[in-house]
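U., I forgot to send this yesterday:
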Amino acid sequence: MTSSRNIPLIAALLLVLILVPPFLGLAWQNALVNVLIASLFALAFNLLIGQAGLLSFGHAAYFGVGAFAALHLMIAIENGFAFPTPLVPLAGGLAGLLLGSIAGFFATMRSGVYFALVTLAIAELLHSLAPRLEAVFGGESGISSMRMPWGAISFGSMIEVYYLTLAWVLTCGLGLWAYTRTPFGRLTLALRDNEQRVRFLGYRTHAVKVIVFAVSAMLTGVAGSLQAISNETANYSLFASDVSAQVVLQTFVGGSTVFFGPVIGAAAFTLFSFLVSDLTRSWLLYQGLIFVLVMLYAPTGIGGVLQHHIRNRGRLDWR
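Result:
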């Protein structure tokens, strides 16, 4: 899906993302911001499950920590701290990196279902503690702030927030794609395919997994900070298990074996909730049915199906 033959398609998609949003209504602009944030969250999560073969059930922990770190920095900017608003997501990335390094060190001591349970326990621990740590997380009501202007940009309109989010998502997405092309990225794939052989080759597999986990948490923190910038508020619900579950569903429906697969799943589910939630209260049921059907009839996800058809389009009978 990332070969040179697909560059025109990617360029056309970028043009649409850049040129079309100003002509859309406020609701659609907000929906596209949510699509971009969900896409970055899914790409960061897929670095674990798709590249390293590590299934995390608690990635909401780093999403929430990134959001709160960004909000605390935004409050400091409100109070006179000189810091450019477009760089606020750096705070979320740093917070995600620190927490991810610590949590990843312990979680990666185990593998398989035990690793997944440890990650889930970390997120649930934060979900339980956050309402009680009012100084950090604002208690049950959470904390709020305002986007402060920077230069000639006020960040008062949703379209300005959209372009800020787009810039960060494209930068992080390009960095992740470049990562997959590095020797360490190849080592990550080898770790997923046969950890024992990688260990026999002399690599410290635990250290590799900690680094991958920390990088994934860092980018998840950036996604969380973009969510905080967009909403200008956050509360302890960001640590809830449904936030972690949502990114798992999006990644597998989109296709964890394809680099852009999680983006497809995140866009599909986010737009689905935007369009259908006003029509029925049972939209989560239909979302679950979509996941079940995709896993039954297209285990590689939507991205895997598209990749198969693109690679074999000359041999397929389209009649």
